[in-house]
Structures are given as structure tokens and as C-alpha cells.
Design a protein that fits this description.
Keywords: Carbohydrate metabolism, Glycosidase, Hydrolase. The protein has 10 helices and 27 strands. By secondary structure, the protein is an alpha/beta fold. The structure holds alpha-L-arabinofuranose.
Length: 505
């Protein structure tokens, strides 16, 4: 083990509020996320409410899921919401051309999604169809969901069994419109986003937070085109009048798209490449923020990362269009370091949605049709970090830390950390990303008296470790060896581990 690292934490220097929506989720009609994941149908032998699997709901409730994005993804731009309301037997089918070319029977539609959100206690984030849908269709969906009183859409909603309007805070105006959502050019989409967003009305006291479909990775030109479309520098118009946020997507793909590598079978170089790619999210967020700052220095328009996470080759023997992958300790560390970055940029980054909640990509839960339910390592990071929701971020300085690891001319930090304060409690998250060595860490805590420190630890025998229905290899335990130090606290973190330390302040 090398010399101790020192992490200075200014507990009395309040930064931005960490929106709970940075811990948001995403559920697409893709593979076994909805059908066979969240939704098993009313006739299933598995305990369900209206077809929604109850053990899935219970497991997710422990994460305090703040919002759930639906129905896509790429699927959103071929989804026609009117096919998913009314008696199930009469709902038309369609082909899900993006994901496996399977038949979609539309049994999980608007009412089922809203029921799921109610069970989870999550705010709905609905992604409307720009690519193949009309302005009228999107406008009527908003009316159907959120209008009170009497109107054509309200009458339909009531006929389908729901009298009261729902609250829908978040509305996506298309998805990946540079690709699967219509292959548009930035300026062309920017104009469409203005038009569609205009007709997504605020009905009654339901105030929509309209999110324009943003860039892939670090395509800053895309963000600039969208910011230009809502700005008029010097004219005094509020840039957030038309849409209130711009999204972007960033996946941790460590290899190439053709050969992404396996979730549980990888060597050390693969591990380092993954972390390097994951840490690059900070450069990407900085880039989009800088572009937005130029047009919106007061930061009224939000930045939303509504798809992120690891993307591996599918598990052998599974449908390549279903994006089913295992989830190892390495995935947990990708998540923990993303959250540290999110906390640092909480003044512009207002929402993030990991892709996807159940059975797809970097999932929280893996299920099988026999009632098996696996909590993935990533699930535990979300659970351990819950205390950061709506807390005040405080500055964290890694003043002494191991030399960054170098691979292929790129570097990777071996330590990652962030901290926040809320209701007289501080929560510190620290990841030792070094797969081979423990990290001796001094938490140099400034600006508050430290009381009742306690910690939790997530690690495993190797970064490849993962959970199955019969073997739980990765689950949080009490962090032992947390000691007082003249500067605050001292702790030794095992290789490839994630820890949270809470204290009264
Ligand atoms: O999350 C899987 C897919 O990734 C989404 O449908 C799409 O938006 C992105 O390319």
C-alpha cells in the first residue's frame, strides 16, 4: 500500500443542491425491461398489482426513485400513445423495430405506466414522439394526462377509468433525434423542438419541464444549436421560455461498438479502459455546461443526462436486440464515480437517468420468469448514496492521492470522492478504483465538529464479481476500521471498493 491519500472536505462551504433527480431511472419497451421485468400481466402467478410485479416495486422503493423515464429511448419515436389505452384486448399491436423486431401488444400503456409511477412514488418523465408522431398527437397526450374539467381528451381518459388528471412534471421532446429519433440535423431539430414544445401546454397547475433531445456524448455543436434556438442574446427574453432543459446521452462503452466486451469477463486493461471512459463524463459535462453558460449565464436552462451507464455485449444465448447484460463490481464503481461527478456539477446538471432499471444495460434488478430477483452491485450504489438526494454539495479536494494510472496515453484517477450535508448530517462517498491495492485515506474534515461517524462498504473478491439468484457476491457491509485522525478520520479501503461515511455535523 502506498502513502495515505488526503481528501479535504469543506463541510461549511455550501455548494449547489444535489437534485434527487440526478438519481433518476429509465424504462424502455426494450427486451425484458417492461414485459417480463416491471410488467408480468394480471394473469401471472407472481404477486402483482394490475400486472406490475410487486417484488420489483418493493426492491426499487428502497432506492427512493425520484423519476422514471418512459417509453424510450429509440422506442419513444415510434410509439403512438393512443394504441396503448382502452381495453387491452382491443389495443393494436406493432413491431418494435429497434429492439429485436418483436411484436409489442401495447398492454403496458399510459395508465399502466402512471400506475407504476404511483406504486414507486416516482415522478413520471414521459418522452414524446417527434420522429414519427405529430404535434397534435403529442399535444393531445399532454392534455389526456394532465387536463382537468371537460375536454375531448379528458372525456377519453375518464372513459378509460381515470377521472383525476395526473401530475406529469417532466416531458421529453423526442429522443436522439440525430439518430434513431429521425436522423435530423441539429438546426432542423432545434426548430422542431420549439414547435413541439409550444403545443405541450401547461394545463391547470401542471407545469411541464420540457426537455429537448440533446447531443450524443461530446457533440457540443448540437447543444449550441439548441441554445441558439431559444436565446436572443441581449433581447431580454428568458431562454427557458420554450423548453426548460437540454439532454445528452453518454454511455460507458469501453471497447468498440462492434466489440464492447463482456460484463463479467475482462482483464485489467479492460477494467482501466472502462474507468477512463467513465471518468471522461466530467469533461463532457464541462463542455456542454460551457456552451450553455455562453447563452444562459444565469443557468436557467437545465442540463439532463437522460441516458448513461455501461453498455456491454449481451450475455451469450440472449437476444442481441434485448441488451441483457450482467452487472459486476466494476459496474458499481462506474456508477459511484459518475455520482461524484454529478454532485460536482449539480449547479447545471439537474437530472440523470441510468439506462435501464430492470434487465436492460446497467440495471438495478435482474429478474427471471420464475420469480427470481437479483439486486445488482449498481443497485447498492444507488441505495448507499440515497443521503445525497436534495443535500447540499460541499467541496472535496483530493490534495494527496496516488499517481493516476496511465493506459494508451490516457490517465485514470485511482480515487474518487464527493460529499454533501443535509439536516445536520454529512455523507461522504469514496471509491478506491485501484483494482490491485488498498487505499489508506485520511478524510481531512474542515468546518464542523465530527460526531458519530459510521460507514458502509461495497466490495467483492474481484471486480468481475456479480450476483445471481443463488449467489450474492456483492452486497454492502459495515465499514470497519474507521478511526479518528488529527485531521478528521482515517480509513483503509480495500481494492475496487466503494464506501459511504455518514457523520453528524
Ligand atoms: O438505452 C438503449 C438505447 O440507447 C436507447 O433506446 C437509445 O436512446 C440509446 O441509443
Amino acid at each position: 500500500m502506498s502513502k495515505a491519500s488526503r481528501v479535504v472536505i469543506d463541510l461549511d462551504v455550501p455548494g449547489p443542491t444535489i437534485s434527487r433527480h440526478l438519481y433518476g431511472h429509465f424504462a424502455e419497451h426494450l427486451g425484458r425491461c417492461i414485459y417480463g421485468g416491471f410488467y408480468v400481466g394480471e394473469d401471472s402467478d407472481l404477486p402483482n398489482e394490475g400486472g406490475i410485479r410487486l417484488d420489483v416495486v418493493e426492491a426499487l422503493k428502497a432506492l427512493n426513485i425520484p423519476n422514471l423515464r418512459w417509453p424510450g429511448g429509440c422506442f419513444a419515436d415510434e410509439y403512438h400513445w393512443k394504441d396503448g389505452i382502452g381495453p387491452k384486448a382491443e389495443r393494436p399491436s406493432m413491431i418494435n423495430t429497434h429492439w429485436g423486431n418483436v411484436e409489442e401488444n401495447n398492454h403496458f400503456g399510459t395508465h399502466e405506466f402512471m400506475a407504476l409511477c404511483e406504486l414507486l412514488g416516482a415522478d413520471p418523465y414521459i418522452n414524446g414522439n417527434v420522429g414519427s408522431g405529430t404535434v397534435q398527437e403529442m399535444s393531445e397526450w399532454v392534455e389526456y394526462l394532465t387536463r382537468d374539467g371537460d375536454s375531448p381528451m379528458v372525456r377519453q381518459r375518464k372513459a378509460n377509468g381515470r377521472d383525476e388528471p395526473w401530475k406529469v412534471p417532466f416531458w421529453g421532446v423526442g429522443n436522439e433525434t440525430w439518430g434513431c429519433g429521425g436522423n435530423m440535423r441539429a438546426e432542423a431539430y432545434a426548430d422542431l423542438a420549439r414547435r413541439y414544445a409550444t403545443f405541450c401546454r401547461d394545463h391547470g397547475d401542471n407545469k411541464l419541464y420540457r426537455i429537448a433531445a440533446g447531443a450524443s456524448d461530446d457533440d457540443l455543436n448540437w447543444t449550441e444549436a439548441l441554445m441558439k434556438a431559444i436565446s436572443c442574446l441581449g433581447c431580454g427574453r428568458d431562454p427557458k421560455n420554450i423548453f426548460q432543459a437540454i439532454s445528452f446521452h453518454y454511455y460507458t462503452v469501453a471497447g468498440t461498438w462492434a466489440n464492447k466486451g463482456r460484463a463479467t469477463e475482462f482483464d485489467l486493461d479492460d477494467y482501466y479502459r472502462t474507468m477512463i471512459k467513465a471518468q471522461d463524463i466530467e469533461r463532457v459535462i464541462r463542455g456542454h455546461s460551457a456552451v450553455m453558460d455562453a447563452y444562459d449565464p444565469e443557468r436557467k436552462v437545465g442540463l439532463v443526462l437522460d441516458e448513461w451507464g455501461t453498455w456491454w455485449d449481451v450475455e451469450p444465448g440472449t437476444n442481441p436486440g434485448f441488451l441483457f447484460q450482467q452487472n459486476a463490481m466494476r459496474d458499481a464503481l462506474v456508477a459511484s464515480l459518475h455520482f461524484d461527478v454529478f454532485h460536482r456539477h449539480a449547479d447545471r446538471l439537474v437530472m440523470a437517468n441510468i439506462a435501464q432499471t430492470v434487465n436492460v444495460l446497467q440495471a438495478m434488478l435482474l429478474t427471471d420468469d420464475d420469480g427470481g430477483l437479483v439486486l445488482t452491485p449498481t443497485y447498492h450504489v444507488f441505495e448507499m448514496n440515497k443521503g445525497h438526494h436534495e443535500a447540499t454539495a460541499v467541496p472535496v479536494h483530493l490534495v494527496e492521492q496516488p499517481e493516476p494510472y496511465e493506459l494508451d496515453g490516457k490517465t485514470m484517477d485511482l480515487l474518487s470522492a464527493s460529499a454533501s450535508v443535509k439536516d445536520g448530517k454529512a455523507l461522504i462517498s469514496v471509491s478506491n478504483l485501484d483494482p490491485g491495492s488498498s487505499a489508506d485515506v485520511v478524510l481531512d474534515l474542515r468546518g464542523a465538529e465530527i460526531r458519530n461517524p459510521a460507514g458502509r462498504l461495497l466490495t467483492a473478491s474481484k471486480p468481475q464479481s456479480y450476483n445471481t439468484t443463488t449467489d450474492t457476491a456483492v452486497a454492502p457491509v459495515t465499514l470497519t476500521g474507521l478511526e479518528a485522525d488529527p485531521r478528521g478520520l482515517r480509513v483503509t479501503l480495500p481494492p475496487h471498493s466503494f464506501a459511504t461515511i455518514s457523520l453528524d455535523v
